Amino acid sequence: MSEPRQPGQKTTRPRDELGRLLPWDQENRLQLEDFDALPLEENHRLARQHFDQGRFFPAHEAWETAWKQAKGTPDEEFFKGLSQMGAGYTHYLRENPHGAHTLLRRGLSRIRPYGPRHHDIDVETLARVLEEHAEAIEEAERAGRDLPELDPPSVG
Fold it and tell me: Phi then psi for 121, rounded to 5 degrees?
């Protein structure tokens, strides 16, 4: 059973706390704000709040909306990078090392040029931590070890 959608429209299918799709008959466990109805600045604020609370999928979604709202501006790549960072930590929580280090590196490459500070984020420190985390995850994957225990950075 699927629900018809327009191209680009997000699914209303139930999701778990990490954004994974659930069967249609299960209860939705992910509550998100209507990011499309909010201005860019509010989406950035909410994304930072979600991220610092360890809610990386909602942070990713809010920054993804901010990125779309910033299309054609100098901040487009910054918000795209933050969205990828949120997705990277989501993959980390989902125990997907390849997705985690790949998206952390993509996000890092996009936000690094905005340093040392941009939109109230310490980009310099954030970039250093993302690089360390991506390396640690990649090394664990290469060695066939469990994911390392990480302390995600604060962006608040």
Answer: -115, 135
**Confidence band (pLDDT; 50, 70, 90) for 10?**
low
C-alpha to C-alpha distance for 84 and 64, rounded to whole angstroms: 8
The pTM of the whole model exceeds 0.85: yes
In a domain, 53, yes or no: yes
Count of structural domains, the chain: 1
Eight-class DSSP state of 73: S
Q: Quick check: 8 pLDDT over 50?
A: no
Residue 122 phi/psi, 5° resolution? Answer: -75, 85
The parent domain of residue 128 ranges over: 45-143
154: in domain: no
| Residues 10 and 21 sit within 8 Å (Cβ to Cβ) | no
β-strands 117-118, 121-122 pairing: antiparallel
Query: Would you say residue 23 lies in a domain?
Result: no
Q: Which value, to the nearest 10 degrees, does the dihedral of the CA atoms of residues 144, 145, 146, 151 take?
A: -120
